[in-house]
Specification:
- This protein has a 5-stranded mixed sheet with strand order 5-7-8-10-9, with helices on one face.
- It is rod-shaped.
- Helix 4 (130-180) runs parallel beside helix 5, helix 7 crosses helix 8 (315-332) and helix 8 (315-332) runs antiparallel to helix 10 (381-391).
- Among the domains are: 196-274, Orthogonal Bundle (Helix Hairpins), CATH 1.10.287.130; 282-411, Histidine kinase-like ATPase, C-terminal domain (Heat Shock Protein 90, 2-Layer Sandwich), CATH 3.30.565.10.
- It is an alpha+beta fold.
- The chain has helices at 2-8, 13-65, 81-88, 130-180, 196-242, 247-274, 286-297, 315-332, 357-362, 381-391, and strands at 98-102, 111-118, 121-128, 282-284, 302-306, 311-313, 338-342, 345-349, 395-400, 406-411.
- The chain starts with a helix and ends in a 5-residue tail after the last strand.
- It is an enzyme of class 2 (transferase).
- One of its GO terms (molecular function) is kinase activity.
- Its EC number is 2.7.13.3.
- Its main location: membrane.
- Residues 224-416 form the Histidine kinase domain.
Length: 416
């Protein structure tokens, strides 16, 4: 179906090339046709004039040989007025002869006239030009017919010839879309070549290599920072526990917990980016698992269930996803926060300002909440939830409710 749609897409490069070839062929055929027609007409007129002048000269010689006193049958009262006018005008004479082509003769039978003054009397002959007219018309018909035949052959061949570069361009476009979707390992596999398409393919591959290198460098930096922070963080945690009880101590311990959570999140993201996480999936009673996860968060959340089915998932990672989604809803949205479990689909909704447009378009980005009205944060919760969803083979999507609020939907594979 997709191939047929590509073939019928008149905006594609294939049909633009075919249209250009068709226009070029038509222009060439029209130019050649006009030139040949005019050349043939000019030659026919010259041959007709020569034939008429030769016929008149021969008739006059025969008449003189017979020693007649007057031109007799050579002089005619039926000589056209245009021919007589040319005969009387010096500009209309060539070697003493005047010629005129009568293309408007009745019955579609044109004539070529030749005339001259003989003993003070205009004499003329008429030569039938019908065979020349029929020859020219047959030539014009053949030119148009074979031009159309050539056009009918050349245009499909040009469309087929354009398919190869068109296919290469489509492959480059598919690879670029895969790279834009996050598959930085995608390459065009352009092979050898030195044309513009090969240059574009090489540029796309080079861009993917550069993006992959930068992403790996960023992942290494994140992992290194998290690991380097972990050792002094453990010292801070231990030191905070040794501080005497006071209001300042509670504040320090709270900030230490926040810093510890941030470091643990960074380590988790680095493992997800490195692709070393492996899920241990199995059948899970989804309603019970979600209820336990909500209880562990300690946050007030409304749970509703409807025809819940067992899901195949990793309960530990599922708990991590649900906890992050619920915490994000409480932190950036407004009460009530609702969780609905229907079938194997888990929906988390708040009644706040909703997700920002950038998040809905590009997905969650680390260290960016997207909009000030959704509160402050590192933007790691949704990033981790999305990464864990990929690990367990689930899909996580984000949207805004029509009556307000952010909606996160987790779809899990069903058991059996």
């Amino acid at each position: 179906m997709g191939i047929l749609r590509d073939l019928l897409n008149w905006r594609s490069l294939r049909w633009k090339i075919a249209a250009l070839v068709a226009v070029s062929c038509c222009a060439i055929a029209l130019t050649v046709g006009v030139l040949v027609h005019r050349s043939t007409l000019a030659r026919s007129m010259n041959d007709g004039r020569l034939k008429a002048v030769t016929q008149l000269s021969r008739d006059l010689q025969d008449h003189e040989r017979d020693d007649a006193a007057r031109p007799g049958p050579l002089s005619s009262d039926a000589v056209p007025e245009e021919l007589l006018h040319r005969l009387r005008s010096p500009q209309g004479l060539k070697d003493g002869y005047a010629t005129w082509y009568d293309g408007e003769a009745p019955g579609d039978h044109p004539s070529m006239w030749a005339a001259r003054m003989y003993r003070g009397v205009p004499v003329a002959v008429e030569v039938d030009m019908t065979p020349d007219l029929l020859t020219r018309r047959a030539l014009d018909r053949h030119m148009w017919k074979y031009s159309l035949v050539a056009l009918a052959v050349v245009v499909p061949l040009s469309a087929l010839a354009a398919e190869l570069p068109n296919r290469r361009l489509r492959r480059v476009a598919r690879t670029a879309r895969r790279i834009a979707a996050g598959d930085l390992a995608a390459r065009t596999a352009a092979g050898r070549g030195s044309d513009e398409i090969a240059e574009i393919s090489a540029t796309v591959d080079s861009m993917a290599d550069s993006l992959l290198g930068r992403l790996l460098a960023e992942q290494r930096f994140t992992a290194d920072v998290a690991h380097e922070l972990r050792t002094p963080l453990m010292g801070l945690v231990t030191a905070s526990e040794l501080l005497p009880e006071a209001e300042a101590t509670e504040l320090v311990r709270d900030r230490v917990v926040v810093l510890r959570t941030l470091v643990e999140n960074l380590l988790e993201i680095s493992r997800l980016d490195a692709g070393v996480e492996r899920a241990e999936v199995g059948p899970v009673p989804l309603a019970d698992a979600i209820r336990e996860s909500l209880a562990r968060t300690g946050l007030r959340t409304r749970l509703t269930t409807d025809d819940v089915l067992p899901a195949v998932t990793d309960p530990r990672r599922l708990d991590r996803i649900v906890a992050n989604l619920v915490a994000n809803a409480h932190r950036h949205g407004r009460d009530p926060v609702e969780v609905e479990v229907a079938g194997t689909c888990v929906t988390v909704r708040d009644h706040g300002p909703g997700f920002p447009r950038e998040l809905l378009t590009d997905g969650p980005q680390r260290f960016r909440t997207g909009a000030s009205e959704r509160g402050r944060g590192q933007g790691l919760g949704l990033t981790i939830a999305l990464g864990q969803a990929h690990v367990i083979g689930a899909s996580l999507s984000f949207a805004n409710a029509s009556d307000g609020g952010a909606v996160a939907t987790l779809r899990l594979p069903a058991a059996g």
